[in-house]
Recover the amino acids of this structure.
């Protein structure tokens, strides 16, 4: 082996070592950016919670002051009335007193009748907000969100010259918005190759490029209709709600019932979450507000499948349009939970076919909730996702990652604590809202 061959081998070895070292350093740098982004997200969430607690305390203090002022005013008025009454009594004669007693005797029978009428008056059912109105309000709330990641992306991409550090900031912003590592990398690559961003500084073109990329990743051609709204849907159309406890599953079931009522459909609820004591009571409260009947067990801890069977039979007998079955979401033993959900589905299908299984996912848990979501997706065959607690577009990237990971569309989003803050998910309105 001559000297030139040895030198060539050494050069190749040095280059290989340099490439390996560069790769390791790049990987460490990326991990540091992800950790820093996650820490920044947690700090912002903690600060937002403290600010919200302060706002609630201030509101309660203001309300207490208002009530105290009203009580003082009422006491003053009552004192004045009492003084005037005493003066009048001193001026009355015995004859007027007798006349007053006779008059009082003649009006006494009317008082119990009025009280009886007020006691027997039935509360009027609420009229839920229409789906169209909800979607308009959803878009406006996203546009006014405190930390929309779309605006942060636009501010970076609209710079005159994008350095490598700027592109790292773009990726960090996507990660903090819970877009997910793989989707973030893909989106950054596509943005870097888009001539509308790299070849011009026109903000309108940059915004349109960003909008088109986000829409492509969210998906515009996906059928996001609830199966109950499709022409071929069964009647009653059965929807089973699944998800871990704490995601707002029972609340979402109640809100979904209101959405169907607003669309003119007759709805029935099945309280098959028999392991959480307050679940059935909570569901009945939601149903009572819009005259939706709830099928529940007489005792806590009853067999959930028996409740589902009874609910499906009742819905079939009453010819309801939709039956929504709420289920337990304990994850202490995944195998038992999945077996239980499978039993609920099998028993229900003895009466009615199940058209829909909706997974309720808490948007604020972000990537931490994805592993739990995968368990349900693999075990029970979900048809769609409901993102609850999507209370700001700073976490809006979860829409992209959840669809990419689970392979099913986001069909509904919950944005806020109001009874009508559940709306059908519209990709265009969503993206336009976060870029407003």
């Amino acid at each position: 082996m001559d000297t030139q061959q040895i030198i060539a081998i050494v050069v190749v070895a040095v280059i290989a070592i340099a490439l390996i070292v560069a790769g390791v350093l790049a990987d460490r740098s990326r991990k540091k950016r992800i950790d820093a982004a996650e820490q920044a997200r947690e700090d912002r969430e903690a600060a937002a919670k403290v600010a919200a607690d302060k706002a609630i305390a201030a509101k309660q203090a203001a309300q207490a002051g208002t009530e105290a002022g009203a009580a003082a005013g009422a006491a003053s008025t009552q004192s004045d009335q009492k003084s005037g009454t005493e003066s009048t009594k001193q001026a009355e004669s015995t004859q007027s007193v007798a006349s007053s007693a006779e008059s009082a005797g003649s009006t006494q029978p009317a008082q119990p009748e009025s009280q009886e009428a007020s006691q027997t008056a039935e509360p009027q059912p609420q009229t839920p907000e229409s789906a169209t109105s909800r979607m308009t309000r959803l878009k406006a709330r996203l546009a006014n969100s405190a930390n929309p990641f779309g605006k942060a992306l636009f501010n970076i991409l609209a710079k005159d010259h994008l350095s490598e550090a700027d592109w790292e900031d773009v990726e960090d912003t996507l990660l903090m918005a819970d877009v997910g590592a793989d989707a973030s990398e893909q989106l950054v690559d596509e943005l870097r190759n888009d001539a509308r961003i790299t070849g011009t500084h026109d903000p309108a073109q940059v915004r349109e490029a960003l909008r088109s990329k986000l829409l492509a990743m969210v998906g515009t051609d996906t059928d996001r209709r609830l199966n109950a709204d499709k022409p071929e849907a069964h009647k009653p159309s059965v929807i089973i709600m699944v998800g871990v406890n704490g995601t707002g599953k029972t609340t979402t079931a109640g809100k979904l019932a209101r959405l169907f009522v607003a669309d003119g459909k007759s709805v029935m609820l099945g309280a098959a979450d028999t392991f959480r004591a307050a679940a059935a009571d909570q569901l009945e409260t939601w149903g009572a507000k819009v005259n939706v009947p709830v099928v529940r067990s007489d005792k806590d801890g009853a067999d959930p499948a028996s409740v589902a069977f009874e609910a499906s039979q009742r819905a079939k007998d009453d010819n309801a349009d939709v039956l929504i079955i709420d289920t337990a979401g304990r994850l202490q033993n995944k195998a038992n939970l999945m077996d239980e959900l499978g039993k609920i589905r099998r028993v229900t299908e003895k009466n009615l076919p199940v058209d829909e299984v909706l997974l309720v996912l808490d948007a604020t848990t972000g990537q931490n909730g994805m592993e739990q979501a995968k368990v349900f997706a693999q075990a029970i065959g979900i048809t769609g996702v409901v993102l609850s607690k999507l209370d700001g577009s700073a976490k809006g990237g979860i829409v992209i990652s959840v669809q990419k990971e689970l392979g099913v569309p986001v069909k509904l989003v919950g944005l806020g604590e109001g009874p009508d803050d559940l709306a059908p998910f519209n990709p265009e309105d969503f993206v336009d809202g976060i870029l407003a």
Observations:
- Confidence is low (pLDDT under 50) at residues 66-120.
